[in-house]
Every structure is written in structure tokens, then in C-alpha cells.
Amino acid sequence: MLYVIIILIILVLFLFVRLLLLKKELKRITKEMKNNPAKAHMNMDFIDGDLQNMITEVNALYDEIMHIKAEGKDEERRIRESISMISHDMRTPLTSVIGYLQVAERADNADEKNANIEIALERARYLNDLVNDFFDISLIESEQVEISFEKVNLSETICEEILAESPEIDRKGIVPLFEQSDRDIYVIADKKKLARVIQNLISNAVKYSEERLEFRIVEDDPQKVTLSIITDSSGEIDTDRIFDRFYQSDPSRNKGGAGLGLYICKSFVEMMDGTISAVQDGKTFEIRLAFSKA
Predict the structure, then answer these.
(1) For residues 181 and 170, what is the distance between their CA atoms, to the nearest angstrom?
(2) Of 152, 223, 222, 221, nearest to 187 (Cα)?
């Protein structure tokens, strides 16, 4: 009986001492957490394994907090840069419109007046396109773009957008080549968004290409249809960044684009469950689109 009492006393003393030690370590943890503004890793030198596991999880949580804070700072920086670029891109054509209209107002010669008005109208149209791009981006970033899937005639859509861009295509002396224009090929997509994507890609191709504009449709995959838009390119293009917002391959030779069109294309294509990529091989530059076959 005496042995049992002694054992119980020893056990109680052991538990009491362990409780004191745990209480001391918990106080140390609380102190470290209060005095850890930088969210650095906490000391893991504890006698209790469960406490060590808890601190491991706390340290992992600190790492996640720091990662989120870093991403937040990066996103804030990108927003500031975007606002700055948007302001610059809108101010430049607006200043041109005002300038040419002022020159036209002072011109005595009718031909000179009309020429300056025409230039002002051209810059105003570009400004209107830019505003539309910014509006699309605001919808994309706020996830307010509505997609209506339907069976869309891809061949017909390409032909319609080539026709819509024909004045600029003719002005550049480019002869479009589209081998599959004589038969209908259908995909599952949003008709308006698909037309916007193709129009944007054609407009971009005509702007930067010298003489080549080819369209190829490949149906090797029974589930997919791939469209390639092929142009020539005189310089090196970063195909990994070309779909980024405000990307310009060479700002010093910028031809009036704000670097938004391909970003919008990529966003719309992915919303339609498609893929888009860019490939450059020497002077040949190709953008590939893939959609589900209807």
C-alpha cells in the first residue's frame, strides 16, 4: 500500500513539474509571437513534441503570410504601373486630336484643313479603341465577362474579319492567304468574343507584318481545331511575355499599340476553354489558337 502511495506521489510530482514546464514554454511562445513583427521563424527548441509540431505549423503560417504580403505588394506595384501606362496611352492620342484640330481651325487652305481633320479623326478612332480595350480589361479583371457557348463557323468568322480589315490590308499591300476558306469548320465558342479575338489578331498582324498574312486550320485532333495566323517579323519577340499586359516587343519602334490587344485575346480564349500560344522561327511569327471542335 505504501509503495502505491509513493508511486502516486511521484507521478503527481512529475505531472506537476511537467505542467510547470509546459506553462513556462507557452509563456515563451506567447512572448515570441508578440515580439515578432517581422513574422520570422520561431525557435523550435521545446521539450514537448506536440509543442514543436505546433510551432512548425505556426512557422508555416508565417511563411504563407509573408508570401501573401509580397504578392500584395507586387499587385499594388502592377496596378500603379498600369494606371501610369493607361494615363500616358490615353493622353498622347488625345493631345494629338486637340493639336490637329487646332491646326485645322487655323488653316486657310481647304485641303490642309481636311488633311488635319482626317488625322485627328484617325487618332480619335485609336483613342476610342483604347478606351474599349481598357473597358474590356476592367471586365476581365473583375471577372464580369459573360461567355455564351455555341456552335460557331470558324471559317466564316475569319473571312468576315479579313473583310472588315480589308482597307488597312489593301493599304499595306498585303494579300491574305486562307486555304480553308472554301469549306465550313465549326468550333464551340462565344461568337462575339471569338470575332473580337480574330479581329484583334488580324489588326495586330497587319500593323506589324510587312507582306505576309496566312491562315491555316489544322484538324489533326478529333476533339480540337487549331487555327494558325502566320506573319513575318523583322525582330526578336519574347513569345513567353507577348500576352502580358502592356507588353511591347520594342517600345522605341512602337507603332501606336498600347500592348493590350494580345492580353485581351488570351483572356477571352481561355474563358472559352481554348488555348493560345506564340512561336517564332527566324522571320516567321505564328500565333496558334485551339478550340473544341463542334
Answers:
(1) 19
(2) 152
pLDDT for the residue numbered 224? 92
Segment 39-98, tens digit of pLDDT? 566 665 655 666 667 777 777 777 777 777 777 777 677 667 666 766 766 777 788 888
Q: Closest by alpha carbon to 89, among 129, 118, 48?
A: 129
**Tens of pLDDT, residues 171-191:** 888 888 887 767 788 999 999
C-alpha cell at 265: 485575346
